[in-house]
Amino acid sequence: MTLDLFDDLPRETREAREPLGPGAFVLPGFALPFVDELLPAIDALQQRAPFRHLVTPGGFTMSVALTNCGALGWTSDRRGYRYSPTDPDTGQPWPAMSDAFLRLAREAASAAGFDGFVPDACLVNRYAPGARLSLHQDKDERDYGAPIVSVSLGMPAIFLFGGLARGDKAVRVPLRHGDVVVWGGEDRLRYHGVLPLKEEPHPLLGAQRINLTFRKAG
Ligand code: SIN
Ligand code: FE2
After folding, report:
1. Rg (CA), the chain
2. Is any ligand 1 atom within 6 A of the Cβ of residue 125?
3. Which of 181, 189, 195, 213 yields a CA-CA distance of 20 to 30 A from 112?
4. Residue range 98-121: average pLDDT?
5. Residue 10 scores a pLDDT above 80
6. Probe residue for ligand 1, chosen from 56, 132, 136, 192 as the CB with the greatest number of ligand atoms within 8 Å
7. What are the helix and strand counts (H, E) for the chain?
8. For residue 151, is pLDDT > 90?
9. Terminal CA-to-CA distance of the chain, rounded, Å?
């Protein structure tokens, strides 16, 4: 399975929904109509809950910086990964998810066949050039009935979408500003990651990539 066949086509002639599996789809440009609302919301969020580089249970500092909004936020330290209702840096609840975030998450999930998605957690990842995310499963959520909705903003990236076992071959999916990936159902536990980012500054966001991942965590 490869998306390379589509690379030479103008985006308008690509299918609106590119399958990565029976329950996994790329929705090219799906978030573009939301960007004007998303960027100020991310700005306000990071003032209240600043981006930070977490340490993994194995003692590595992540190259990706992150923060959260919503009732629950994903966090990590030497004791493990978990969802927390409060920001461990400030002791305060995570900022609420803005209406535009919730609408985008619900509409993207529906477009991929998952109606009624109401996320309670939004992890916001910030990648500088060189930052990467190694292959992992999203499996700290309480149940896997809801999909993951992942929104790309800013610099382009190569997303790796693997199988249900760590060693399975991963396809390389180029993601650009405004693209959304949704995976759920039998694809909910697919391994995924992001290759080290090249420095290709984006007109609106400069030399960074912001990724929003919406989850139903609690
Ligand atoms: C994630 O797996 O949490 C983020 C994926 C991405 O940045 O595209
Ligand atoms: Fe993930």
Report:
1. 16
2. yes
3. 195
4. 98
5. no
6. 192
7. 2, 13
8. yes
9. 33
Q: What is the pTM of this model?
A: 0.93
Helices (H), 88-172: 99-111
Instruction: Ligand 1 pocket test: pick from 54, 74, 133, 136 the residue with the most ligand atoms within 8 Å of its Cβ.
Output: 133
By residue count, the chain amounts to 218
Q: Does the CB atom of residue 194 touch ligand 1 within 6 A?
A: yes
Spacing, Cα 135 to ligand 1 middle (Å): 10
Ordered domains of the chain (ranges, CATH): 4-9+17-215 (2.60.120.590)
- Give me the pLDDT at residue 77, please: 87
What ligand 1 atom has the least distance to the C-alpha of 64? 7
Euclidean distance between CA atoms 104 and 84, whole angstroms? 23
Contacts of 68 (CB under 8 A, 6+ apart): 49, 74, 75, 87, 94, 121, 122, 123, 124
Q: What's residue 78's pLDDT? A: 87
Q: What's the CA gap between 32 and 20, in Å, rounded?
A: 21
Closest by CA to 83, choosing from 8, 93, 46, is: 93
The pLDDT, as a whole number, for residue 54 is 95
For residue 158, the model assigns a pLDDT of: 98
Q: Which single residue is written with the structure tokens 């930070």?
A: 52
